[in-house]
Amino acid sequence: MNEIILPYGKRKEIKEELRVSYPTIIRALKGKNRSLVTQKIRQMAYVKGGYEVVRLKCDVK
Length: 61
Description:
Layout: E1 3-5, H1 10-18, H2 22-30, H3 36-47, E2 51-53
Helix pairs in contact: 1-3, 2-3
């Protein structure tokens, strides 16, 4: 999964609405988990103005 970037203050809103911790939100937004809670966090992040960032690996020699 790709990382989701959120506008300032939206992580706090998600934390309060879903009653989850900041580390849980960070892991979910970075796409490091695939649990049901992660899916809810990511879905709410999109609704609150979040956008997905695709990181490309570059092998420069």
